[in-house]
Amino acid sequence: MRSMGSRRRGLGLMVWSLWFGLTVAAAPAAAEPAAADAPLIVNIDNPAFRKLVTAVPDFPGPTAAVDAELTRWGSEGAAELTRLLAYSGLFNPMAAAGYQDLLAKARAGTAGAQGLEGIDLAAWKTIGVESLTVGDLVREGPTLTIALRTVDIRQGKVLVGKKYSKVAPSDIKRVMAKYADRILEAYTGKPGIFASKLLFVGKQTATSAKQVYLADFDGSNATPITSAKSPHISPNFSHDGRFVTYTSFEDGNPDLFVYEVATGVKRKLSGRKGLNSGSAWAMNNKIVAFTGSVDGDADIYYIKADGTQSKPLIRGPGLDVDSAFSPDGKWLAFVSGRFGNPHIFRAELKWTGDTEVRVVSDKRLTYAGWWNASPAWSPASDKIAFAGFDKDIDRFDLFMMNPDGTGLERLTIRSGDNEHPSWSPNGQLLIFESSRTPSRGDVKGVRHLYVMNRDGSAQRPLNTGLFHVESPVWGPQPAE
Fold first, then answer.
1. What is the model's pLDDT at position 369?
2. pLDDT by residue (tens digit) across 292-325?
3. Which of 29, 144, 343, 462 is 20 to 30 A (C-alpha) from 400?
4. Pairwise pLDDT comparison (34 vs 71), residue with the higher score
5. How far apart are CA 234 and CA 257, in angstroms?
């Protein structure tokens, strides 16, 4: 068995290490309506899913030819919308070179017959574009009016149309994020992701204390919400995004805290002697499950969100950690060492009211792998992503399975350690931590955030500006 103190292996290893140490020591304007009968044409759960080819030409304005600033803002807006659509994992943006001839013909008045609202649908279809977004910018004093339309070329319909008034030039990217969310919802019927937040543990330097950070959906604008010169670990969001739970050693014991995002106010949720870590909010945000230790044994408890009524939920021989409520409220996934090495289990829950819950039965889900940890439910409660240790290649990798343990899929391989997956609000993407870069031979790199499509494709890094990042959690998409 490898040294548990050598590195963190997701939440399961962190809790195991802490538990071992304790025992030996003693989270605009009115819209232009989209076509009401537009079908949902992107099914991200379909195994045969293929990205839609999209084009977002630079947004012109009535005075763009003589207004350099307006031209620049239109170009920046189109580039940002293109970036967001690519990030979503649903769209494959066409490079501008692919449609420059078509635009040139339109400007010269030599384009073919115009179709929907002045758009030559046949020409765009011929070059392979399936979704086209066009826009106009107009100066209104010191602000802008931005009008955007997204046309599904195959159907010949405007799926999304929106006009934003009184937009400051500095807010163009924010407007593009709002509009990109509308595009995602129009095509999938599921909420967007671009107003959501990330939560993670980070270090500014190699010697810094671990702090909990909040950031935008792509890891940018990372801001610490903790500051004590002690380790802070295991953050999680409430399902409404209003609160964050995390464990801090600032009082000398691994205590569980609650932080209110809007006010910055924190309070201690559980400070029992021993371990208080690995929090998981129930979908109704009324109770929080966590791992606590009593007499040297680590089990799963739950507590009301106001800090009262702490009760055991999973108890038994061996370590019980990494609890995760399914979004439908029917199940609790967790990691148990009751049979030796840690494996993932699923408990069936019985609720009495909003704050009383008990386990009816449980089932072991994983048998392959030497060490399995950090289960994460998809938003639809139909998949569980998790990290598993492959002894043959000496690596943690990410896997996905059905809620009953069937349909096991491998998402990463031979790219450092990959751990702690978390789903995007629409279930299309997974964020995770990885030690893949930099790496020399068997030396694994510092951990950073990566994001990928739910099938494991398009794995790419996120830039948080921090030296080290781990334990990411993707928060909810806030309601408008």
1. 81
2. 987 778 999 999 999 998 999 999 888 999 999 9
3. 462
4. 71
5. 11
Q: Could you give the CA distance from residue 12 to residue 335 in angstroms, rounded to a whole number? A: 7
Compute and round to an integer the Cα radius of gyration of the chain: 24
- CA dist 117 → 29, 113, 114, 150, 373 (Å): 21, 11, 8, 11, 53
CB 250 within 8 Å of CB 259: no
Q: Which of 227, 265, 222 is nearest to 248 (CA)?
A: 227
Q: Which tokens is 89 given?
A: 């994992």
Question: From CA 117, how far away is CA 120, in angstroms rounded?
Answer: 9
Answer yes or no: is pLDDT of 23 > 70.
Answer: no
Structure confidence by residue, pLDDT tens digits, 409-467: 999 998 999 999 999 999 999 999 999 976 555 456 899 999 999 999 999 999 999 99
Grade residue 1 by pLDDT with cuts at 50, 70 and 90: very low
Cis status of the peptide bond prior to 169, with omega within 30 of 0? no
Lowest mean pLDDT among 43-52, 126-135, 193-202: 43-52
Rounded to the nearest 5°, which phi and psi values hold at 75? -65, -45
Domains of the chain: 10-27+193-474 (2.120.10.30), 41-188 (3.40.50.10070)
- Judge whether 261 and 242 are in contact, CB under 8 Å: yes
Distance CA 435, CA 397 (A): 11
**pLDDT at residue 4, as a whole number:** 34
Percentage above 90 pLDDT, the chain? 75
Global pTM exceeds 0.85? yes
Residue 317 burial (C-beta neighbours within 10 Å; 0-12, 13-18, 19+): exposed
What whole-number distance in Å separates Cα of residue 104 and Cα of residue 82?
20
